[in-house]
Design goal:
single chain, alpha/beta, Rossmann fold, Alpha-Beta Plaits, 2 domains, eight-stranded mixed sheet, four-stranded antiparallel sheet, 33% helix, globular, hydrolase
Amino acid sequence: MLPTPPVVADGIALFLDMDGVLAPMAPTPDAVAPTARRTAALKAVEARLAGRVAIVSGRTIAEIDRISDHALVSGSGVHGLERRLKDGSIERKTPDAGVAHALDAFEEFAADRPGVIVEDKGVSVGLHYRQAPDEAGAAKGLAAELQAETGLTLQPGHMVLELKTPGADKGTAVTAFMQEAPFKGAVPVMLGDDLTDEYGFEAAAALGGYGVLVGPKRETAARYRLDDVDAVLTWLEAVAKA
């Protein structure tokens, strides 16, 4: 059984996933909205940690900004394929040519399947079937076929399959931030709920830090666990006051 993470602020750097960690899971990606509590907690903990906080999400940076109400500067989107530095500049991988092909195939698949949603992120494309769980098998089969055809990286998530430009993940994003001010020299702490966050947990551990799993117990590289989004926000509020 994993213990709850310690409430410490001095010397740590925080890396936070969005969906399932800072925001509850929703039926569709655009159904998640900003909340006053989340925005206040992020601003408070960033001030306490002297800027050593970044959201590391599968969402685009634009979506991170929308949901967090522009609370933070540092952030990484689309599983490490986008990264905004502390000075506000953005590094973005060039989209693989296979992404356009995958987008066309996903849109054709979703056209006659109510509840299946296609999300175009430019450097990747996601196929959401949360509202059509019976389509899981067919969706997984199509994604695997497209991955073999295009060489894109297949990234499964919570009721979503994403085909993305190769070469980055949440772990590479954490590692890159930790080489730069104001993160450099701190102890990295990654909070995540999904399999995609395991890369972040592993990167944090390799750099002397640790991961915090959010949600039900499962096999994980994380050292600690929090129950849900409310527990995360409560913990962040406590860290901000530590």
